[in-house]
Design brief:
alpha/beta; 3 domains; seven-stranded mixed sheet; RNA-binding
Length: about 575
Amino acid sequence: MNQADPKPSLNFIEAIIEEDLRNNKNESRIHTRFPPEPNGYLHIGHAKSICLNFGLAEKYKGMCNLRFDDTNPTKEEEEYVESIIEDISWLGFDWEGRLFYASDYFDQLYEWAEKLISDGKAYVDELTSAEISEQRGTVTKAGEESPFRDRAVEENLELFRAMRDGKFKEGEKVLRAKIDMSSPNMHMRDPVIYRVLHESHQRTGDKWCVYPMYDFAHGQSDYFEGITHSICTLEFEIHRPLYDWFLDNLIDTKYRPRQIEFARLNISYTVMSKRKLLELVEEGLVNGWDDPRLPTISGLRRRGYTPEAIRNFADRVGVAKRDNVIDVALLEHSLREDLNVKAPRVMAVLNPLKVVITNYPEDKEEELPAENNPEDESMGSRMIPFSREIYIEKEDFMEDPPKKFFRLAPGKEVRLKNAYIINCESVVKNPDTGEITELHCTYDPETKSGMPNSAKKVKGTLHWVSAQHAIDAEVRLYDRLFLDEDPAGKKDGSDFKDYLNPDSLKILNNCKLEPDYAAAKAGDHFQFQRIGYFVVDTVDSVEGKPVFNRTVPLRDSWARKNK
RNA sequence: UGUCCGAUAGUGUAACUGGCAACACGUCUGACUCUGAAUCAGAAGACUCCAGGUUCGAACCCUGGUCGGACAACCA
């Protein structure tokens, strides 16, 4: 093996870029863009594309623009523009002021449409959309030409201007590129490039009543912005000949953008299409676009994901052209990896069971030191109150435990984290229901954490809170939204919503927390020791009364073994 | 029954472009542990879709097939 730096492997897009750089293509500029349509919220699939586009620009000392593809005023809204801007910024990317809209180019695009007409390469059609669809043919059968295909240039120009001037109703006339009705590629069969829409546009108002189609806007917008590598998902692959056709017929420069397609991200146990996400939101199956169970950026943020975790994840999933489904465990791994070093540790009891330490003085209380993060000494420590009555987790006690149960059971002893070793003496039950209501234990004062005699080994360590000091908190336990690995991929006719997990959200109202954390601020991350990572909800928390969302549970080899 | 794209451990991505199939996640062992977490050490797991061909040598090149995906909005 040569110890000289092993060539870092490139994904296929980086390979293309490096090849272009070697050939001094486009004067060795690298300029990408992220082009969302403002008709929905961004999801983690978009995050992959954002990381790719901005990441490439960064890696190759280029630039990356943000451009809203707003060519359809009937679907797009300002609310979406704002959320998209917020999400990209939150992920940590900067378009350095290069925020554009396809609508910025409507004048130029209109002129180019006239140019195409003048060159005899576009015509005004007056067939209905049903008729156009019918004569387009099928994937295996050539289409037929429209009777309006061979109008004179002057007539076309006149008609197109009349379209622009509002002389026609929607659907009455369209502008079509004159390409090839027998092309094996449906997109080349005289595609519609301009349509009449008597709709006010979020940005251009009532200036226009004709709007360009995606294909007539996208490549040209790339060209106007000097984009060199126009990266999009696989479904646009079949559009590429059209992308190139417009450039071939409209520009005459050495510089030219190139469209490159990669496979979109899919993740197990969720859905990743705007349409399906919209359906869940609109039908009230989740609580809005930022529901913590959704793979939207805003949902993940509210769930407690960090930008770093998402970016690391995006790096790890790779970039290629084959369809893929990423194991959600990889996402969760990236998250835990980041939170492990960042999140302060806290003791919180989700399902409290009272423990009375019978030999601990009734009026005594002490403050015990606890480190905030064993992974990072600089995060310091805090003092936590201890007293005669504490709460432990219900599931940390079993009356009749299996052999390898390292927790509390009658006659067994455990370490209370940061405190003493206790021994379980007796169990108090509700005489009517048989339910365990209380445990009576004794403690050994010599085993206090940090003391010389504290080194005694016990198998288990439990988290706990002092009953009289603990604060109550609401905790929301989020789980995966779907029970099936691939809810949208079924061929048996079932709907993705058939696989919704009925237990994707469990609300716990009687959780006990260390007293200091009443002051936790919205968005603060914590690790509830032995349980998982939690974040203070940004929507429903109120001053002094935080609501905690479970971001992700800790890995749990005990639970795994017992499955 | 058209065109385009794709196929490498369970999942995802590599393989210096023809030279010992590697990395990550996951799984399983073990060590350590005042978090059954983290960390550390190790293991299992791949006829590289199939069949031919070229070559000293093929995951990679060629031929043929199989399987999967995309495409017939006045959506993007």
